[in-house]
Amino acid sequence: GRYSFKLNGPLICEFERTTGSAFYGAARRVINKEPKFFEVSEMIRLALIGGGTTPACAKQLVEIYVDNAPVMSALGLALEIITRTFFGELAADEPANPDKQETPAS
């Protein structure tokens, strides 16, 4: 199935409580590909809950598809969750970096 992932303020606070890590520090470690494994799995679990998955189902999904999967696939998902948390959803035609918009050729 397809699942939605979303982190908000209360879930970020829960992440910090359960991991003992500051969210921004964990995000930096994920971006630099140097995270603690539990930070990645907990970020995914909480983002599943924020996306509407029940806590029990989110826990089960993480146990199956994160804890027992190749590490890089979970890291990629965590990076996507961080990007959406910081910048929101991007429209298909919206540039990822608004400062580097392409200008039409004259």
Would you write up a description of this structure?
This protein is an all-alpha fold. The chain is 58% helix and 0% strand. The chain contains five helices and no strands. It has helices at residues 9-19, 23-31, 37-50, 55-65, 71-87. Helix 3 (37-50) packs across helix 5 (71-87).
Could you tell me the radius of gyration in angstroms?
15 Å
Number of helices: 5
- Low-confidence regions: 96-104
Strand residue percentage = under 5%
- Cα(first) to Cα(last) distance is 46 Å
Residue share in helix: 55-70%
Gross geometry? globular
How many individual β-strands? 0
Can you give me a brief rundown of this structure?
The protein is mainly α and 106 residues long.
Which secondary structure elements does this structure contain, and how are they paired or packed?
Blueprint: H1 9-19, H2 23-31, H3 37-50, H4 55-65, H5 71-87
Helix pairs in contact: 1-3, 3-4, 3-5
List keywords for this structure.
about 60% helix
